[in-house]
Structures are given as C-alpha cells and as structure tokens.
Amino acid sequence: MTRSQEFLHGCRDILPLIVGGVPFGIIFGTLAIGAGLSGWQAMGMSLLVFAGSAQFIAVTLISGGVGAAVVLLTTFVVNLRHALYSAALQPFVRHLPSRWRIPLAFWLTDEAFAVIQHRYARDDASPHKHWFFLGAALTMYLSWQLATLIGIGFGQAVPNVASWGLDFAMIATFIGIAVPMMRTSPQVASALVAGGVALLTWELPYKLGLIAAALAGIVVGVWLERMAERRARQEAQRC
Amino acid sequence: MLIWLLIIGMLVITFLIRYSFFAWPNLRFPRLAEQGLHYVPVAVLTAIVAPGMLMPEGEWALRWDNAYLLAGLLAILIAAWSRNLLATIAGGLLVFFLLRWAFGQLPL
Q: How many Å apart are CA B55 and CA A199, to the nearest integer?
C-alpha cells in the first residue's frame, strides 16, 4: 500500500474508538470548566497533555484544592500504563528517525495503541505502516480537541454544572477499561486489594491513599503470579 | 498561572512515559518490572473507582440512594458481560442520571 492509503486506513480504523472518546472529551471540557479552569486552560490541557484519564483526575484533584505535587505524582501513576504500549510498539518504530518517533510517542493513547498493534500484527511487508500509525493517532488527536471544545462551550452555558455528578462518567469509563482486563485470578486479586486499600487509606492527605493502593495491588498481583508459576514448575518436575 | 505550570508538568511526565522505549531502542525492562507493569492499569483504575462509588462525597455512603454505587455496580456487570467500553459508559451513565433524577439529586 502507498503512504496515503496507509494513512487513510489508519484514520478509518480508529473511528469506532472515537465514538467512545468523543463523549469522554465533551465531559472533560465540561468538568474542567466546573472545576474552575478557564476555557484556554482546559483546551491547553487537551492540546498539550492529551491523556483522557489523567486529565479527568487532574481536574477532579484541582477542584478539590490538592497540591501540584500530588497532581503530578497521580499523572505519573495513572499514565504509567503507556510505558507498556511504548515497549510493545518499540520493535516496529526503532528504525524510524526521531522526527517520526517523537510525535508518534506524543500521540500514543490507549485507543491508538489498540488499532496500531492490530495493523503491525498483520504480516504483510508494507514499509509504510508508520503512516497508518500517524493517521490513526492524528484522527484521535483532532477528535479529542473538537470534543473538548464542545464540552467547554457546554460547561460555560450550563450553570453549576459541577453539581450534576458528571464525574460518574470517569468511573463508568474506568470500569469499562479495567473489568475486561481482569482475566486471571492474580488480576482480580490485584484489583480487590487496590480497591480495599484505597477505601481504608482514604483519610490520608494529598490522595496518598491512591498511590498506596496502586502499589499494594501491583505487589499482590506479581506475588500471586510468581506463586502460580512456582507451583506449575513443581508439578512439571513431578511428572 | 499555577494551572499552566501544572499542564506543562503533566505534558513532560506523560510524554516521557510514552517516549521511554521509543527513545532508547535497546531498552528492556527486567522481568520483575515488566510483570509489575501488567498490574498497573487494573490496580490504579480500581483504586480510583472504589472510593468514587462508595465515598462519592468523601465519606462512607453505603446507602440505597447512592446513585454512584448502584450505577457503578451495574456498569461492572455490563463490562463483565459485554466487554464493550461504549456499552458500559452509555449504560452506566443512563442509569446513573435516571437514579439521580428519581432520588431528586439533580439541580433541575
């Protein structure tokens, strides 16, 4: 396929995921205004950070009057999953010059990763697959900006939008991302421990409970996975 | 001004995470770190969701008129059954606002 064909296929393949992203972006814009950000600040966050869940949590934290260090630490923890995507796509982009790798990394979202991984998995030898990456990522980026803009207008038009409980959109989104990931029992245990610790440590200042809960969940998950591996090894030796 | 500094900080952190492996083509994680990374999304997202459902106002709310809890439980069921993100968000939000309306919790 030619470069422009790859690019257009990328734009097309990400469309179903945009259907989910657009309401999310509209709600972000609305919430940001409700949290006291100016229209430019809300737009600036979407343009520069481009990470839906981290943006959601940041405006929730800002409206709760939390310090900057906590917002940044939370951004780090919440976005750490992108390191996984970066590692998974690394073999396919390592040959590209940095003028390609830098923008592609900036545009690497959950949604883009889902479709791009699919494209690279197909075993045709097209040398232009990074144009597919670019098309998918750019389409996601533009739709996120447009959705944010609509949400800002909505937030400014509707009075006391903060009391509507729109933050439930974030909870529903995270449930929709996390629950299908719980395919193994260590994953389920990790989630239960993280949720339990988050509830028990809620009183801690600066949302430190979130960090404690995430760490506890990760440790329990890895520990259980290693136990299962050891058991499997022992059984294999016995046979 | 503080908000803009925050946005720049978030930009730097998010970009460095995404660029990490693209920047160093030969970078590999030790196995323990890679195993740990696999639990990050589930642990972080659950740690945000659980208090959001059970303590929406910052204190325990194990009550029948807590729309966050009821609609959240329904969203979990939809997600487990359909594994569809859009259905989970749409179904959860619809029921959430219906409940808020029924409980008289919407500023209408």
A: 8
Instruction: Please name which of B56, B108, B45, B27 lies closest in space to residue A160, comparing C-alpha atoms.
Output: B108
* Chain B residue at shortest CA distance from A93: B22
Q: Which of A82, A171, A195 sits opposite B17 (nearest CB)?
A: A82
- Distance (Å, whole) CA A84 – CA A224: 20
Residue B66, CA atoms < 13 Å, CB-side half-sphere: 19
Digit-coded pLDDT (tens) for A149-175: 999 998 888 877 767 787 788 788 889
A63 touches chain B (CB under 8 A): no
Chain B partners of A179 at a C-beta cutoff of 8 Å? 76, 79-80, 83, 88
Question: If we measure between CA atoms, which residue out of B27, B18, B19, B86 comes closest to residue A109?
Answer: B18
* pTM above threshold 0.80: no
Task: Please answer whether residues A170 and B72 qualify as being in contact, where contact means their C-beta atoms are separated by less than 8 angstroms.
Answer: no
